[in-house]
Amino acid sequence: MDNGKEVIGKVPNPNAGIPHYTAASEVATMDFMRNTLQTPVPEVYAWNSRIEGNSVRAEYIIMEKSAGIPLAHIWNSLKITEKFNKLAALDLYSQLLPMLLPSESEPELNTGHLWHNDLQYENIYMNPDKPNEILGIIDWQAVEIMPLYDQALDPAFLGYEGPDIGEDLSRPKLDVTSLDEVQKQVAYKNFDEKALIVGWRMAVKAKSPDHYKAIQFSNSTAGHLLSLSKNISILGEAHFRALLLDPRDEWGSASRKFPL
């Protein structure tokens, strides 16, 4: 701008969603997160969700350019202690969004919750001089209010791809005495990734017990079945039905009768 201020102009992709509602929903969500929940979200300066009578001839959002730099630019250079501090900064989400269990016996878990399900590196802006400080969170277009068992419960930027740790929150062990240099590097990487997920789960368990309970549910037999149900279009119905039979023998501990 003429005064040196930088802004971001957004125009939705034609296949991004339903006309009008795509832009209007994102603006409403950002306003709620910024002004009601005091989340570090860019300010919206101007917007128009109607093409008719619009000189731009498109839906648009003009918003504040978030201060700082994307987390992706600094994540790999952070020390492990700084990464733990970064997770602590995300406690905002664990406190705002208790989890849901699909059980009528626990009505406090059967409500919808607002959840940013795309907390990847590029959507979190950090203070480059103080890398544990979050300055802004962007990309609120696809945010939904829905049961959290159907959301991404661990931040995507953690990048943990190992087996679920279950309820074992003990400190990971590292033994590289019998490994060569290449194997050691792999072991160090796996150790750091597991240490981060354990640290995250410990923080969630302490700060937001319902969130932690939902994580446990998502890794239960019932939770896995719900996850499988979302993959019918990818795996095919026959494959899906075959996968449903796998956990049948484990269903005894579930609160509902196995449906097949």
From TrEMBL:
The keyword Transit peptide applies. It comes from the Eukaryota. Keywords: Mitochondrion, Transit peptide. One of its GO terms (cellular component) is mitochondrion. It is found in: Mitochondrion. Belongs to the AIM9 family. This is Altered inheritance of mitochondria protein 9, mitochondrial. It comes from Helicocarpus griseus UAMH5409.
